[in-house]
Amino acid sequence: MEDLERLREELTSAVAGTADTQALEELRVSALGKKGQITGLMKGLGGMDPDERKAMGQALNALKAEVADAIEARKAALEDVELDAGLETDRIDVTLPVRPEMQGRIHPISQTIDEIVAVLGEMGFNIAEGPDIEDDWHNFTALNIPPDHPARQEHDTFYLPGEQDGERMVLRTHTSPVQIRSMQNGDPPFRLIVPGRTYRCDYDATHSPMFHQVEGLAVDKTTHMGNLKGCLIEFCRAFFDVDDLPVRFRASYFPFTEPSAEVDIGCTREGGAFRIGHGDDWLEILGCGMVNPKVLENCGVDPTEYQGFAFGMGVERLAMLKYGIPDLRTFYETDLRWLKHYGFRALDVPSMVGGLNR
Fold this sequence. Notes:
Blueprint: H1 2-17, H2 21-32, H3 37-43, H4 50-89, H5 108-122, E1 126-127, E2 133-135, H6 136-139, E3 159-164, E4 167-171, H7 176-185, E5 190-199, E6 210-220, H8 225-239, E7 247-254, E8 257-268, E9 275-276, E10 281-291, H9 293-298, E11 307-314, H10 315-323, H11 336-342
Parallel strand pairs: 1-5
Antiparallel strand pairs: 2-4, 3-4, 5-6, 6-11, 7-8, 8-9, 8-10, 10-11
Helix pairs in contact: 1-4, 2-4, 5-10
């Protein structure tokens, strides 16, 4: 028993003298582990007579419990000390000015959406939003897209498993379903723009499976093609900051508009350089047209009384053209060097009064 008392004093003294949790763990293993001192003594109980074994077993169990408790108490104290030391080392003075290299940047997509909204907002358009997951009716049928249209094919569209109310669910291929929902849930006139994410099965330097669009809709009793042209011409000139930017409309086809048109802006590629403005070439940037009467009828709007126009533009495409970004895929590669080069300061909020960008 005297040996046990001496061992108890040695172990408790060693526990109290440990400097860190690593040393404490090594001490625990040497005392209580499979090959530890106390464990070794307990293995020798089998060679004792019953009375001696009983007394020694009780003493060893008591010693084991006492040492384990001492280790746990010392561990808690050491962890508190180490935590305090770590907090002191990692302490940051929040009153210090921000390091220049740590300043954040607004992503070009966010900046471009804000610029588009700033221009069209001045024209009286309001922002509308809707779900990214749509049913087949809102995404296709209501927009007069026939069942055999290529846009409905599996190779072009992300369909989701299962159905809802008998309709296939799909990641929306454009933000036009929000226009449908807005017309269904409100009364004309309508004047809205819809920024948001869209999804299509495509991926290369100029296409992404997830991208952003801004679509516009204006419906009332007197809107005509001249209003559409005036709206988009002024938008293009304000967005690209070219007062006399050439803009032309080419006849095209979309199921949801009739007549339909593609919008081109003037540009030049002289000397291998690309520049937006007066030149000998044209660049297509968006699609538009007068809302098809069938679409109005599907939304509960009387096409004999109301008419309107709609347009849609790709945000990434406009950002690439305006800011000289050559590859669309870099928008989503989370490269801080890229963001530092193409990003915008947080306080550069676009407006028609203060300017779209600085």
